Each structure stands twice: as C-alpha cells, then as structure tokens.
Amino acid sequence: MVVVDVIQIKExxxxxxxxxxxxxxxxxxxxxxxxxxxxxxxxxxxPSPEGKRKxxxxxxxxxxxxxxxxxxxxxxxxxxxxQDPVFGREVQGVPNENVNRVxxxxxxxxxxxxxxxxxxxxxxxxTFANIICESARVKLSALGISGSIQVNLxxxxxxxxxxxxxxxxSRAVQLALRRSHLAPEQGITGYHLDNYRxxxxxxxxxxxxxxxxxxxxxxxxxMHGIFGGYHYFIRAVLDRxxxxxxxxxxxxxxxxxxxxxxxxxxxxxSLFTPCRYEIDEVEFIEGEQVQNIREIVSFRGRxxxxxxxxxxxxxxxxxxxxxxxxxxxxxxxxxxxxxxxLIPSSLLGV
Length: 350
Fold this sequence. Notes:
Elements: H1 6-9, E1 18-21, E2 26-29, E3 38-47, E4 53-55, E5 58-62, H2 66-76, E6 81-84, E7 89-95, E8 99-103, H3 105-114, H4 120-136, E9 143-146, E10 160-165, H5 167-182, E11 188-189, H6 193-203, H7 211-218, E12 224-227, E13 230-237, E14 251-269, E15 275-286, E16 293-298, E17 312-324, E18 327-334, E19 341-344
Parallel strand pairs: 10-13, 16-18
Antiparallel strand pairs: 1-2, 1-8, 2-3, 3-5, 3-7, 4-5, 6-7, 9-10, 11-12, 12-13, 14-15, 14-17, 15-16, 17-18, 17-19
C-alpha cells in the first residue's frame, strides 16, 4: 500500500488523508486547518484482538461514533487528546513526531488503477472511479480513495469511499452522479427504503427522526448511494488554494447547545467537507438565546448536501463564538453528538 514520509508533506496534510502512529493506531485527518505541531485527526482503526479486520498479521477494530473514539483514547492513549487554544475544546490530535505513515487518497487510487491483480472491491472502486471521471469529464488525479481500502483494511462488506478535490471537479462529479441517479444505466443508484436502513442506523438513528423522514433528505443527495452492490460515499474537499483559513486566524469558544429554526441564505459550500451554510431569521426553540448567529458548519460528511438555499430549517447542535480580530459572530457546529439535526422544517411539520 502507498505511504509517504510525514516530514516531507506536513504542510499538505488535509481532510481525507489517513495517518498511522508508531503504536499502529490509524486516524482520519479532519479539516484543512491544523496547528504547527499536530495533525487534527480522529481515531478510526486500532490494534485489538476483538477486531474483525486483519493486515500484516495484526487484527484491527474499527470505531465510528465520536464519543467512542474519545473513550478509547482517554482510556488507552491519552497522549492523543489535548485542549486546543484555537478551537476552544478538547481535540483528537497526533503530534508530528508520532506520525509514522501517511496514506494519501490520490496515490492509493493511482496505485490500484495500475495494479495488475485486484480483489473484488478494489476492482469495483477502480471501475467506479473511472466511470465518474468519464461521466464528469474530470481527470483521475482529481479523485482519491478513502476509507478502509485506503489503508488495506477492507473486507467483503466494506463501502466504497472516494474523495474529489477542488470546487470545479466536485461540482462536475455532483452533476454526473445526479444524472446517474435519474437514469441508472451504469449501476449507480440513489437510496430508497429497502437499501437505506444501514445508512440511517449509522448516521441518523440518534436524532429520533423516523427513517421515512430522513430518507426524504438523503434520497436527494448525489454524493452517496449504491454502486455494484456496495454503498458509496464521495467526499468533496476544497483544493489548498481555495481554502483561505490558517491556524490561529480565528478562535472559537463554545457557548452551549441550542435548537432553532432559521432560513438558509447561502449553500455554496454545502457540498464540501467541512460543509458550510449561511443563515438568517433565527428563531430559538431551545437553549439560551444569543445574537448574531450567521452560519452552520460541520466536519461530518453526513451534513453535506443536507439543505438548500431559501429553505426554512431546524438545526440543533453546539453554538460557538467565532472571533477574528475585533470582529465576532456565532455559528452552529454540527456532528459532535448523534442528536445533532439539520433538516427542512417542512419535514418536521413546522
């Protein structure tokens, strides 16, 4: 599997990369903004005799839910938890000196595309990536492989996880997949009730919103669905030149949980991870009322493509104050809790 030396590429580590520590822990990198001495990344796989995945004679367990990731690190590897002064919260982060390997999605896809012998899932992900490139008219170098295949820990029931880089390529892929969902001639389809239960259980069951309601949101999304019998998810990430924020440009302070109704005024960055929505006309339902709430942000891919401009929505999550010099505003940050919500108000009868 393709790996690279972290020292050579520290400045270019970004969302979608995986990093492996000296102990064999594998983390997925979050976001595009990192402190100079650490990589913000969240535990995904760890050596465990109770695991179901094996690589090089070592058995690994997979962890998905955020609270469980924190619990494992707190109990076994507390050196990967720290209080970040910029983000204003406890964060999972790997010190630079502890990074042993970096797995780059673009290099993994290139490697598998050139590989002579592939297993069934590897073949399907390469086929899927090439179909997307042809349909969207983007180069293969704009795509990468993420998830379990990226670190050679996949199994027969694994999903297909891809990354697409850059605003133009991401929009092109989104439109190509939208066409494919409407006319599924190449085996690419969206979700319907008989293939959606697994996705709902993983992403939305903690909200208490019925599966039939959440399907009305997820069936409209282009960047996830089914290909060749596998679930697929494609994460869109801005190119480095398109991402303006640097570590320390802004500071963040948590204010507490809230639930509001508001209007989406801009969804230009709704496709990406992290995704962002600008909002107005905020009406509090629960939580201490604060002023100047301007946006919704999430580093979890499930909130991408979630709502659209000019929709009234219900949002529930953590409020944070954002400070940039003498300027400040408030945002919702979603994804810390399984109860976090972003959904059109009309679907909840509001």
